[in-house]
Amino acid sequence: MEEPARDPVAEAAGRHPDRPALIAGDAVLTWAEMDSRVSAAAHWTAARTAPGDRVALVLGNTVDFAVAYFGVLRSGRVAVPLNPGYTAMEIDHAVQDSGAVLIVGEPAGPPRLRLVTAARVPMEREAGDGTLPEVKAADLAVLLYTSGTSGRPKGAMLTHAALAANHDQLDRIEPPVVGPDDVVLLAVPFFHAYGLNTGLGTVAHHGATGVLAERFEPAATLDLIGRHGITVAVGVPGMYQAWTSAPGAGEALSGLRTAVCGAAPLARGVAARFRELTGRSILIGYGLTETAPVLTTTAVSRRDKSGSIGRPLPGVELTLRSRSGAELWRDGTAAVEDDLAELDVDVAASDGTDPGEIVVRGPNLFRGYWPDGSGGPDPDGWWPTGDVAYADADGDLVLVDRIGELILVNGFNVYPAEIERVLDGHPRVSAAAVVGLPDPETGERPHAYVVPAGDPPPSVAELQVWCAARLARFKQPGIELVAELPRSPIGKVRKGEL
Predict the structure, then answer these.
(1) How many CB atoms lie within 10 A of CB 229?
(2) How far apart are CA 222 and CA 380, in angstroms?
(3) Which fold would CATH assign to domain 407-481?
(4) What phi, psi does 324 have (nearest 5°)?
(5) In this predicted model, what pLDDT tens digit does every residue of 26-36 receive, in sequence order?
(6) How far from each other are the two terminal CA atoms of the chain, in whole angstroms?
(7) β-pairing verdict for 183-186 and 209-212
(8) Pairing assessment for the beta strands 183-186 and 232-235 based on DSSP bridges
(9) In CATH, which superfamily holds the domain spanning 8-261?
(10) Which of 331, 427, 429, 498 is the most buried (most CB within 10 A)?
(11) Quick check: 232 and 257 in contact, CB under 8 A?
(12) Predicted local distance difference test score (pLDDT) of residue 343
């Protein structure tokens, strides 16, 4: 007999019916009220669609999104969360690719959404009668479109079981990262796996309380933290950088029990400033859309360690592999192989392991990309992430870079993240991003776009001297000062635009 899917909202309502579920402005919704609204949304969706149909959600971090999302899942349909800031072309691609038969958006949505709705969504089709099917754990729950850094965005297929598995894995960490008595800031966009499952999903899983922030504004979110007694912040590096630079941040952040950061690397200086202000360390997590999303965290290892992504969650198997597939390291144990040095990288610690691609296995993995499951785990359940890391002397993982962003200078590997860390270490650098540019003599050369800070800001010559003292000659970047870096809604640098 197939295992039924969990319904976290129904479970939360059963345990804590009168506890606040979501707070949005002055509105407070209890878990009992949330459950009632989700049921209504589920029946409404079921009356207009068939089981397994895709439903696009083009909404911000609102109560409406949460109700629609959990309603779609309860109805046995597939949620397709989309960025409300997408252009008409981007919305059109996701709607057409997913075959969504229904779009849920704001009543007076932007013209681009109305245009796509009219052009792409069938208006006449056989609808259901509103009856809710028995939803199975193995059923597809969500299609999440990846950022598309290597081409058109692809829909990662996540089942109900995969979403739930990531919560079970996080629950096995002691002391717990989030618990039922926590009040959680939900400012990371819900159309991203991190905001959706680690943020909103975690609140429902624990029957905790979520405070919604539809957009991130440093002063406004600091006010929310103090006003609602928020104990857990789920954030990205840009949020912590903005908070730690804001007046009165120490007092506002003092009530936080847990601060979690993911989606992109966190500068050591920001981590140190947060620790100085609050006496607490930011927990660093690493994961991908395809893994629902968390794979590793410093909560499993040393919570006060900067520069590391920690160790695998309980229940996640992780190995580092060389290009030939040789295993360099697995779950804390270095492998003994003849080709450990074949990656020809010198960023690893002398007493750690050489860098290798992160390859993972676990119940939180996706089922492949829509619609045919291509690119998913192999027959044994292993999936290569495309990210490179090494294990340091303590057995903690250090993320190096994406394989696709590797720069080859005269045949030598140069990882942009290493150069970015050096530049970020300069006291008057706000941000830096490094890409590879064609070079007639060396094949490629690293080029850094740097956002300066301070008064006076650093000159190009000063930054070149800074890098020369810390990087081998073949890693020295060309440097260009810029006012800002192009970023995605969750703060990742869009290197394709650079």
Answers:
(1) 12
(2) 46
(3) GMP Synthetase; Chain A, domain 3 (3.30.300)
(4) -80, -5
(5) 999 999 999 99
(6) 52
(7) parallel
(8) parallel
(9) ANL, N-terminal domain (3.40.50.12780)
(10) 429
(11) yes
(12) 35
